[in-house]
Amino acid sequence: MRLLVLSSHADTFNSIRPEAEIFVGMQKLGVDVTVMTQADGVYNEPMAAAGIKLVDFVPAGKFDRHGVKFVRDYVINNDIDVVYAFNNPAIITCNRALRGLKHVGLVTYRGQTGNISKWDPTCYLTHLNPRVDLILGVSDAVRDSLRPELSNPEKAQTVYKGHNLDWYKATPVDLQAEGLPEDAFVVGCVANNRPRKGVPVLVEAACMLPEYAPVHFVLVGSNMDDPDLQRQIANSPHPERFHVLGFRKDAPAIIAACNVSVLPAVKREGLPKTVIEAMVYSVTPVVTTAGGSPELVEDGVSGFVVPVNDPQAIADKIQWLYEHPEECREMGRRARERIDQAFNVVDSAKRTKELMEDLIKRKRS
Length: 365
Prior knowledge:
Elements lengths: L1 E5 L6 H16 L3 E6 L6 H6 L3 E4 L8 H13 L4 E4 L2 H10 L7 E6 L23 E4 L2 H7 L9 E3 L26 E6 L8 H8 L8 E6 L6 H8 L7 E5 L4 H6 L3 E4 L9 H8 L3 E5 L4 H4 L7 E3 L4 H13 L1 H18 L2 H20 L1
Parallel strand pairs: 1-2, 1-4, 2-3, 4-5, 5-6, 6-7, 8-9, 8-11, 9-10, 11-12, 12-13
């Protein structure tokens, strides 16, 4: 199989790694992989070392006429079997580039639930375009959100972005240096503060905890200095128990130093990487039913799953974990095992390869 991938790898090394390692794994499985991305892509060196061919190309925009010709010529000249497009500019470019090339499969990636509707004409530029043969959602929740919008629901399938425990070697930070008391039971929340992440729900939950519990909250991510959030914290019974660290490059090392991780998201989650990072560091997760989070966490075994917009439920789980320290540590241990066993990057590469091989068979028949 000759696979051409179009993606942008301008983000951080660790954020790109789960995606890029799927390509590395497929190359090891015998797939001839080419990746079109930036010449200075953050994961170019490991991909090249694995034998993946790299092409310096990223669409200039959603309607890049020259990019369409470039991709089409490359597909024809290199006898490509499947094209895998990872973002909207790439998907739109490939929808146009592959017109008339019926023997070439087109696969798209979808990383979150929501915002795709058969009643929205703009969606036919991307995933709902008839030229798309297969959509790989990052979780069953993403897959299931797509299927009602498709004339052929089976076009949407799931491939988890797998991980490898060896990738996570960060030394937990010293939280006392960040102003936390030595006896604090620490709840971490890593999220870019936007409405769908539900950070105010967590602050409300903190107000429901008993006075005697020395629970402190570490908030990591952009926009945590939002005035409305800051007012809510200031008006809480114990504002001194909130530690707003904002955007930090060492976010995984911060969450690794916590007792519990909470993602209070209210909608549109795919397969949250911040939850995965907490789990691989044996930090017990508390997540909501939003999107793919419940697929990561086995409720009551490797963490807790609570309803969305339910601060009392979050408070109850935090209090229980505080009052049961041994069970909290055991849940964290099981969370780490859960990622290793059910979300392994080797399995992700195999699953992607199998789905694409099946697509090629259907195209040829």
